[in-house]
Specification:
DNA-binding
Length: 274
DNA sequence: CGGACAACCTGGCGGC
DNA sequence: TGCCGCCAGGTTGTCC
């Protein structure tokens, strides 16, 4: 669920409550959430460090501290928020990691499915796998996109989901971008015309930018750090709209599986054969 | 390189 | 009301 727009929204929402706060202690009831380091080492190392900045790379949240970077990946059901010590909210049922901060507040990481990951490292590059370009940056031009497509032979949806090809796109925004570009998710990447590549480049950026503007999609698990819902889901063209009329042509939106993932598309607006 | 698929986990939901 | 099985999707790793 949390894709680039959701992660970006979390990052923006954490800056005010987190920057300037110092870690006083660590509590966990499922230490597997901490990766690449024993929990005791994590506790010893993070204690006393102060948060200085909060940034994003791909779907990773980067909380920069005095000496290290606290790196969080929300995966499917992760939620990250700062609340006063005594506050109890529903998501706390799955809050497996809590950092006690000064000022009487806690940074809590809630994750119902325990897929999320937390790392502490001097340099995030030591943690990241190979990551593609940031689609919303100015240097992600259509030429860059076309260059990365060259030589690839794969269905276009699978390629959009590949984080080493382009960073930050997940299942929801891949479907939305492909619809807006009028491209069937099973089209092979090497069959796209110059015009289609140009359209897809534009719709990837527009879809993600809209997602950020709407503060993410709260379909089930995702919430902003302040606990409220995003509105992105109210503006979807195809995701979750299978069985409903296409907003462009009225045809019934179909759902199928592409590379093991639920995939939504309009069979008329996104023809497989052109 | 690409495709298929299991694994990691558990809540929510439809069906009976 | 309760139990069963399936679905959700980010990422890694394995096998062909």
């Amino acid at each position: 669920m949390p894709e680039l727009p959701e992660v970006e929204t979390v990052v923006r929402g954490l800056r005010a409550p987190l920057i300037g706060r110092t870690v006083l202690g660590v509590w966990t009831d499922w230490s597997n959430v901490i990766h690449e380091m024993p929990p005791e080492a994590f506790t010893a190392r993070i204690s006393g460090q102060t948060f200085t900045a909060v940034k994003r790379r791909a779907k990773y949240i980067l909380c920069e501290m005095t000496h290290d970077v606290l790196i969080v990946h929300l995966r499917m059901t992760g939620r990250l928020y700062v609340v006063p010590d005594e506050t109890v909210i529903d998501a706390d049922r799955w809050a497996h990691l809590r950092l006690q901060l000064d000022g009487g507040v806690q940074l809590r990481f809630s994750d119902a499915r325990k897929f999320g990951r937390v790392y502490l490292s001097e340099n995030p590059d030591n943690i990241f796998p190979k990551l593609g370009p940031e689609p919303l940056e100015d240097d992600f031009t259509v030429e860059v996109f076309a260059g990365r497509l060259a030589g690839r032979h794969k269905n276009i949806k699978a390629l959009l989901l590949d984080q080493s090809f382009i960073a930050g796109v997940g299942n929801i925004y891949a479907d939305e971008a492909l619809f807006r570009a009028g491209i069937h998710p099973l089209r092979n990447s090497d069959s796209l015309s110059v015009e289609e590549i140009k359209r897809l480049h534009e719709t990837i950026r527009a879809t993600l930018a809209d997602g950020v503007d709407y503060e993410g999609a709260s379909i089930n698990w995702y919430r902003k750090p302040d606990g409220t819902a995003g509105e992105s889901q109210e503006h979807f063209y195809v995701y979750g709209r299978n069985g409903k009329a296409c907003l462009t042509c009225g045809t019934i939106i179909e759902k199928t599986r592409v590379t093991q993932r639920g995939t939504h598309y309009c069979p008329v607006c996104q023809p497989l054969n052109r």
